[in-house]
Amino acid sequence: MMLDQLMLEIKKLPRPQPILVGIVVAFVIALLWAYREVIQWYWLPRWDDPNGYYSYAYLVPPLAIVMIWMRRERLLQLKAQPSWWGIPLFLIATGIHLLGHWGYSSWVSSQAFPLFLISASLMLWGTQITKVLLYPLLFLYLMMPMPSVVFDEITNPIKVWSTEVAIAMLKPFYNILQTSQVTFIMPSGYELHVGVECSGFKVTIALLTFLLFFFTITDLPLWKKLILPLALFPIAIISNGLRIALIAVAGHEWGSEAGKIAHEGYPVNLPIFGQVDIPTTGALEILIPFATLFLIARWLGWKK
């Protein structure tokens, strides 16, 4: 049914000009070729890392396409008026890409990728159409891995705050010995160190990506929309602190193996898939922020 509806909507679209389609396809191929090393050695290794923070990045381009599709009626009402403003932006993007290439910084090169697309949109369709496409194209920045220096500056405070929340939850019930900002010992001697992978940042950035996509499907005023990402970070820290506290309780009450299961999940052997870890406390990192943000959106007036 949904596929039939999609095909019906596609048939309503005007027939594209073959020359324009050829130019767009050629530009995309040339852009991907120019970024082949960045994609192969910088993006994909981080997207494919099972312990990394960018597994959600594969969803970013499809979500951007969905956002463009949702704007199709507005786009069809506009007339293409190519703008020369695309040329200086293209030159700026080229300079950034070359600077990253010559300086061996894939992150710098990555920053030019959406700029190339925006410049092409300006040169082919002009400012009015580009304004409609701007948000989906800027949305692509969410798939760009951050440099480790910036990443560490973000995750380290989050680790500390999450640990403090967990200790605050545990102190009324247990005598906690805190040995560092991110390490504490339960009365049984069970020690818990909050590493980068336990900072909760992985889920936070994935939820932030979802929220920025959510902005396009809700008719809330802008100020109400901005409340959601602002609320996300404290909610994520509290839910991650709860998860850390539950891991500590499991390790204290039932031993290190129970603590490991609470942290990594319960291993189950399934046909075809082999061993799969069923999430335990890890599910709370997603469920609590998602449910809370949903309730906040409802409270703000979102009805759909």
Write the layout of secondary structure elements.
Elements: H1 2-12, H2 18-34, H3 36-48, H4 60-70, H5 72-76, H6 86-102, H7 106-110, H8 113-125, H9 127-139, H10 148-170, E1 177-180, E2 183-185, E3 191-193, H11 201-214, H12 222-254, H13 256-264, E4 266-270, E5 274-278, H14 282-300
Antiparallel strand pairs: 1-2, 2-3, 4-5
Helix pairs in contact: 4-9, 6-8, 8-9, 10-12, 11-12, 12-13, 12-14
Structure characteristics:
mainly alpha; 14 helices; 3-stranded antiparallel beta sheet; 304 residues; two-stranded antiparallel ribbon
Please, could you describe this protein's structure?
The protein is mainly α and 304 residues long. The chain has 2 domains: 144 residues, no CATH class; 152 residues, no CATH class. 67% of the residues lie in helices and 7% in strands. It has 14 helices and 5 strands. Strands 1-2-3 form a 3-stranded antiparallel beta sheet, covered by helices on one side. A hairpin with a 3-residue loop joins strand 4 and strand 5. Helix 12 runs antiparallel to helix 13. The radius of gyration is 23 Å and the shape is elongated. The mean pLDDT is 87.
